[in-house]
């Protein structure tokens, strides 16, 4: 049987120190073309030979930016109204370092990745401690391999590859590409990170955000949330950004299949918190 694949491209970048507001006119796919923005985001869905692109435009001169939604929500990466997730819980990550980087930069980017992974795991752990009915989220674990260091220990191909460059196209700081199977499970993920003009904490924050995409999250409507699409550059470089209960609850829904031990996609495209769960930041000390 021919195995049809769907490719989703999710892009996030944080550059100029100006806070922008952006309205998404379609959650399936959007491309933002802006001038002097903090963030450019793009999602493109390619099914067979058909490409769907819906464009939203934001400017820095809008005197009356749209107000945030009263009810916080987070969009999910989805195809045909079904959220995507991994169909296994142990994810192998391979770090590909630039040959031109020096040892100090190498250590910095490796630390940023480890810190970002640790942040997600600690946030999940705190969420599960508060809401033990979602303890199955603890099954999501990561193993990290570094090209030229311990990559020979990797069995088979990595689930996630992380690449670093001095600069990405269009001044982006991060780009995530997800390859989706015809049963809506994530097959592979590739993250590209730009190194220029980012502090160690800035790299960690971009990585933490990108890992949210890798796990199946899109963007949050709450401007203070880790998964919000736009941030002031100084905030990214100087303030630690951590997952919220909204982010982890969304994961709890799309990974609920773990309890059944049989993968099946979750039929929704966005998530809001139930009244029993407050929207707070988790494990951000």
Helix-and-strand structural type: alpha/beta
Radius of gyration from the alpha-carbon trace, in angstroms: 18 Å
CATH topology: Collagenase (Catalytic Domain)
Topology, number of strands: 15
Broad CATH class: Alpha Beta
Cα end-to-end separation = 50 Å
- Which CATH architecture is right? 3-Layer(aba) Sandwich
Number of domains: 1
CATH H-level superfamily title: Collagenase (Catalytic Domain)
Total of helices: 4
Largest sheet: 10 strands, mixed
Q: Name the helix and strand elements from N-terminus to C-terminus, one letter apiece.
A: EEEEEEEEEHEEEEHEHHE
**Share of β-strand residues:** 15-25%
Mean pLDDT: 77
Explain what the structure shows.
- Helix 1 crosses helix 2.
- By secondary structure, the protein is of the alpha/beta class.
- It is globular, with a radius of gyration of 18 Å.
- The protein has a single domain, classed as Collagenase (Catalytic Domain).
- The chain contains four helices and 15 strands.
- Strand 3 and strand 4 form a beta hairpin.
């Amino acid at each position: 049987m021919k195995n049809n694949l769907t490719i989703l491209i999710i892009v996030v970048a944080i550059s100029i120190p100006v806070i922008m507001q952006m309205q998404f006119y379609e959650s399936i796919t959007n491309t933002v073309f802006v001038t002097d923005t903090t963030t450019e985001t793009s999602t493109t869905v390619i099914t067979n030979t058909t490409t769907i692109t819906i464009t939203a435009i934001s400017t820095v001169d809008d005197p009356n930016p749209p107000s945030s939604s009263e009810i916080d929500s987070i969009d999910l990466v989805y195809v045909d109204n079904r959220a995507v997730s991994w169909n296994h819980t142990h994810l192998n990550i391979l770090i590909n370092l630039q040959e031109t980087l020096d040892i100090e930069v190498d250590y910095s980017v490796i630390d940023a990745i480890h810190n970002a992974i640790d942040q997600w795991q600690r946030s999940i752990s705190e969420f599960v401690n508060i809401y033990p009915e979602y303890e199955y989220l603890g099954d999501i674990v990561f193993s990290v391999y570094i090209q030229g260091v311990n990559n020979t220990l990797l069995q088979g191909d990595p689930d996630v590859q992380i690449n670093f460059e001095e600069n990405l196209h269009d001044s982006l700081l991060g780009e995530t590409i997800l390859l989706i199977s015809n049963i809506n499970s994530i097959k592979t993920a590739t993250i590209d990170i730009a190194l220029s003009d980012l502090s160690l904490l800035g790299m960690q924050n971009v990585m933490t955000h990108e890992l949210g995409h890798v796990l199946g999250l899109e963007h949050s409507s709450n401007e203070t949330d880790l998964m919000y699409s736009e941030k002031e550059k100084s905030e990214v470089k100087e303030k630690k950004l951590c997952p919220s209960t909204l982010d982890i609850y969304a994961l709890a829904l799309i990974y609920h299949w773990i309890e059944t031990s049989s993968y099946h996609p979750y039929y929704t495209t966005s998530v809001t918190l139930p009244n029993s769960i407050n929207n707070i930041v988790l494990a951000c000390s």
